[in-house]
Amino acid sequence: MAQTPDSLTIAVLGAGSMGGAIARGVAASDLPARIVVTNRTAAKAQTFAGVDGIESVSLDTTPEGNREAASAADVVLVGVKPAMVPDLLIEIAPVLRPDTIVVSVAAGVTIATFESRLPPGTAVLRSMPNTPALVGRGVTGLATGSHVDAAAVALVRRVFETVGIVVETPEAQIDALSTISGSGPAYVYLLIEQLTLAAMAKGFTTEQARLLSEQTFIGAAALLEASGEDPAELRRQVTSPKGTTERAVAVLQDADLAEVFGRATDAALARARELAAGA
Questions:
Q1: Residue 132 CA to chain centroid, in angstroms?
Q2: Could you tell me where the DSSP H helices lie in 93-230?
Q3: What letter does residue 2 receive in the DSSP assignment?
Q4: Checking phi first, is residue 206 left (phi over 0); if not, alpha (psi -120 to 50) or beta?
Q5: Which EC number applies (predicted)?
Q6: Do residues 160 and 127 touch, judged by C-beta distance below 8 A?
Q7: All domains of the chain, ordered by start, with CATH?
Q8: Which helix (H) or strand (E) covers residue 128, if one does?
């Protein structure tokens, strides 16, 4: 496989929000690569106009764009909607080189689906990035298929590390990972929403309430990252004995948040399995 910096080519087939974020991350990184992205419409393709290092192809004007991009790529990222994946794989399978690495960015589509539609021996990995990848702070779960060697894993890690951190996991754990890091941003936003509403109920304006709530979460996360402390320890440092925070935390603990988050992530996992089964 051509992995040398001056010859690496990455094709992102279906460069929507997530595929586009990865393409932009690679383009802005120190990973020298030629990047080709495809989208169905000229309008979507135009969103990459002027981005250094990215060649954007519209399938409206270049119907063979997916095949052309895949045929020249060392790494092919498949980012189309899950229902479109099987047909896309059948389309590109005849033009893939034997050493091309194919990576799924499509939620709920198994490695077996990829391997059954691609040439025998194709190196396939399944990824599960999350939306903070859009600002370079993503978490990507990465699972390997049957024909992936250490060099392929290392290369794909480098690609996803341009938009955050990577956690390698067996495919059997990818759906579970999606309930934590994949869906996790929504849980955080929900907590911020609720704290904002609580602030408004105490007389703050909407703008003030948003500022107080959002910056508290952002600051707390930054302190957690900078300090390296366990979250429980940081919580203890804020919670003075017999103080106001202790009283508030007691109410939250009475709500049995561990059980609530357990049920929430279990519900997400059940739905992920339904989607994988085509429900």
A1: 7
A2: 111-117, 150-161, 174-177, 184-201, 206-227
A3: -
A4: alpha
A5: 1.5.1.2
A6: yes
A7: 9-174 (3.40.50.720), 184-276 (1.10.3730.10)
A8: strand 123-128
C-alpha to C-alpha distance for 84 and 106, rounded to whole angstroms? 9
Q: Which residues contact 111 (CB under 8 A, 6 or more apart)?
A: 104, 124, 125, 126, 143, 144, 145, 146, 171
Q: Please give the Cα distance from 108 to 200 (Å, whole number).
A: 39
130-148 pLDDT tens trace: 999 999 999 999 999 999 9
Tell me how far apart the alpha carbons of residues 230 and 155 are, in angstroms, rounded to a whole number.
Answer: 31
Work out the percent of the chain whose per-residue pLDDT is above 90: 91
Give the contacts of 36 (CB within 8 A, at least 6 positions apart). Answer: 9, 10, 11, 12, 54, 55, 56, 57, 69, 72, 73
User: Which residue's entry shows tokens 């279906």?
Assistant: 14
Instruction: Check if the beta carbon of residue 99 is closer than 8 Å to that of residue 76.
Output: no
Spatial CA neighbour of 156 closest among 73, 85, 53: 73
